[in-house]
Amino acid sequence: MKERTIEINLIDGIRNDVGIVLTDFRNKFISDRNSIQMADIDKMSIFIDEKYLKLLSLMNGEMIEINSTEELEKIHERGIGYVFNDFTGNSALGKRDNKLHIAKCPFMNPSHPNRMTVPPHKLFGLFYEETLDWLEKNRSRIGYTECKCLSE
Questions:
Q1: Whole-structure pTM value
Q2: Sign of the torsion formed by the C-alpha atoms of 2, 130, 69 and 101
Q3: For a Cys staple, 98 with which of 7, 32, 53, 144, CB 3.0–4.6 Å?
Q4: Domain edges within the chain
Protein backbone atom coordinates (compact mmCIF):
# COMPACT_ATOMS: atom_id res chain seq x y z
CA MET A 1 0.00 0.00 0.00
CA LYS A 2 2.90 2.37 0.75
CA GLU A 3 4.27 2.04 -2.80
CA ARG A 4 0.82 2.77 -4.23
CA THR A 5 0.66 6.00 -2.20
CA ILE A 6 4.11 6.96 -3.48
CA GLU A 7 2.99 6.31 -7.07
CA ILE A 8 -0.10 8.47 -6.62
CA ASN A 9 1.88 11.31 -5.03
CA LEU A 10 4.49 11.24 -7.78
CA ILE A 11 1.86 11.14 -10.52
CA ASP A 12 0.06 14.07 -8.84
CA GLY A 13 3.32 16.04 -8.76
CA ILE A 14 3.96 15.41 -12.45
CA ARG A 15 0.33 16.15 -13.27
CA ASN A 16 0.70 19.46 -11.42
CA ASP A 17 3.87 20.37 -13.39
CA VAL A 18 2.13 19.54 -16.67
CA GLY A 19 -0.99 21.41 -15.57
CA ILE A 20 1.02 24.59 -14.97
CA VAL A 21 2.44 24.42 -18.51
CA LEU A 22 -1.00 23.78 -20.00
CA THR A 23 -2.51 26.66 -18.01
CA ASP A 24 0.24 29.05 -19.15
CA PHE A 25 -0.32 27.95 -22.74
CA ARG A 26 -4.11 28.35 -22.42
CA ASN A 27 -3.74 31.85 -20.94
CA LYS A 28 -1.40 32.87 -23.74
CA PHE A 29 -3.86 31.47 -26.28
CA ILE A 30 -6.79 33.34 -24.73
CA SER A 31 -4.91 36.64 -24.46
CA ASP A 32 -3.43 36.68 -27.97
CA ARG A 33 -4.13 33.79 -30.32
CA ASN A 34 -2.04 35.40 -33.04
CA SER A 35 1.13 35.32 -30.91
CA ILE A 36 1.14 31.54 -30.59
CA GLN A 37 3.70 29.93 -32.85
CA MET A 38 4.09 26.30 -33.80
CA ALA A 39 7.25 26.37 -31.70
CA ASP A 40 5.09 27.07 -28.61
CA ILE A 41 3.00 23.98 -29.29
CA ASP A 42 6.10 21.87 -29.96
CA LYS A 43 7.76 23.11 -26.78
CA MET A 44 4.69 22.25 -24.70
CA SER A 45 4.43 18.80 -26.29
CA ILE A 46 8.11 18.04 -25.67
CA PHE A 47 7.81 19.14 -22.03
CA ILE A 48 4.82 16.86 -21.43
CA ASP A 49 6.50 13.93 -23.22
CA GLU A 50 9.66 14.35 -21.12
CA LYS A 51 7.67 14.35 -17.87
CA TYR A 52 5.82 11.16 -18.74
CA LEU A 53 8.96 9.43 -20.02
CA LYS A 54 10.61 10.21 -16.68
CA LEU A 55 7.63 8.76 -14.86
CA LEU A 56 7.77 5.55 -16.92
CA SER A 57 11.51 5.21 -16.30
CA LEU A 58 11.03 5.62 -12.56
CA MET A 59 8.20 3.09 -12.47
CA ASN A 60 10.54 0.61 -14.19
CA GLY A 61 13.24 0.98 -11.52
CA GLU A 62 15.54 3.31 -13.44
CA MET A 63 17.24 6.31 -11.92
CA ILE A 64 16.91 9.65 -13.67
CA GLU A 65 19.11 12.72 -13.67
CA ILE A 66 18.31 15.70 -11.51
CA ASN A 67 19.07 18.67 -13.74
CA SER A 68 18.93 21.60 -11.35
CA THR A 69 18.96 22.63 -7.71
CA GLU A 70 15.30 23.65 -8.19
CA GLU A 71 14.41 20.04 -9.15
CA LEU A 72 16.31 18.84 -6.10
CA GLU A 73 14.30 21.21 -3.89
CA LYS A 74 11.02 19.93 -5.40
CA ILE A 75 12.06 16.36 -4.62
CA HIS A 76 12.82 17.34 -1.01
CA GLU A 77 9.51 19.20 -0.76
CA ARG A 78 7.54 16.16 -2.00
CA GLY A 79 9.58 13.87 0.28
CA ILE A 80 9.30 10.89 -2.06
CA GLY A 81 12.16 8.77 -3.34
CA TYR A 82 15.93 8.65 -3.09
CA VAL A 83 18.76 10.86 -4.30
CA PHE A 84 22.21 9.58 -5.19
CA ASN A 85 25.07 12.07 -4.93
CA ASP A 86 27.16 10.83 -7.88
CA PHE A 87 30.84 11.74 -7.83
CA THR A 88 31.67 8.95 -10.31
CA GLY A 89 34.62 10.00 -12.40
CA ASN A 90 36.01 12.27 -9.69
CA SER A 91 38.69 10.04 -8.20
CA ALA A 92 39.56 12.62 -5.53
CA LEU A 93 36.15 12.18 -3.88
CA GLY A 94 35.21 8.63 -4.87
CA LYS A 95 33.28 6.27 -2.63
CA ARG A 96 33.26 8.58 0.38
CA ASP A 97 31.01 11.12 -1.35
CA ASN A 98 29.04 8.75 -3.62
CA LYS A 99 26.14 8.71 -1.19
CA LEU A 100 22.49 7.65 -1.25
CA HIS A 101 20.01 9.92 0.57
CA ILE A 102 16.29 9.77 1.28
CA ALA A 103 14.32 12.65 -0.30
CA LYS A 104 13.59 14.14 3.14
CA CYS A 105 17.29 14.24 4.09
CA PRO A 106 18.16 17.41 6.03
CA PHE A 107 21.06 18.04 3.60
CA MET A 108 18.48 18.58 0.84
CA ASN A 109 16.59 21.22 2.82
CA PRO A 110 17.13 24.61 1.10
CA SER A 111 17.69 26.25 4.50
CA HIS A 112 20.49 23.82 5.54
CA PRO A 113 23.87 25.64 5.62
CA ASN A 114 25.56 22.76 3.74
CA ARG A 115 22.63 21.91 1.48
CA MET A 116 23.03 19.82 -1.65
CA THR A 117 23.11 21.57 -4.99
CA VAL A 118 23.39 20.60 -8.65
CA PRO A 119 26.13 20.28 -9.75
CA PRO A 120 27.61 17.90 -8.71
CA HIS A 121 25.71 15.18 -10.57
CA LYS A 122 22.61 13.78 -8.83
CA LEU A 123 20.31 10.86 -9.70
CA PHE A 124 16.78 10.19 -8.47
CA GLY A 125 15.16 6.81 -7.81
CA LEU A 126 11.60 6.21 -6.72
CA PHE A 127 11.72 2.94 -4.75
CA TYR A 128 14.42 1.85 -2.30
CA GLU A 129 14.90 -1.73 -3.51
CA GLU A 130 14.97 -0.73 -7.19
CA THR A 131 17.39 2.09 -6.40
CA LEU A 132 19.74 -0.32 -4.63
CA ASP A 133 19.48 -2.75 -7.57
CA TRP A 134 20.36 0.04 -9.99
CA LEU A 135 23.31 1.16 -7.86
CA GLU A 136 24.61 -2.42 -7.62
CA LYS A 137 24.42 -2.81 -11.40
CA ASN A 138 25.84 0.61 -12.23
CA ARG A 139 27.99 1.84 -9.33
CA SER A 140 29.14 -1.21 -7.33
CA ARG A 141 32.57 -1.18 -8.95
CA ILE A 142 33.14 2.40 -7.82
CA GLY A 143 31.37 2.03 -4.50
CA TYR A 144 28.97 4.18 -2.52
CA THR A 145 27.70 4.64 1.00
CA GLU A 146 24.32 5.42 2.53
CA CYS A 147 23.64 8.64 4.41
CA LYS A 148 22.59 8.25 8.04
CA CYS A 149 19.20 9.73 7.00
CA LEU A 150 18.27 6.28 5.64
CA SER A 151 18.48 4.71 9.09
CA GLU A 152 16.75 7.47 11.07
A1: 0.66
A2: positive
A3: 144
A4: 2-59, 64-150
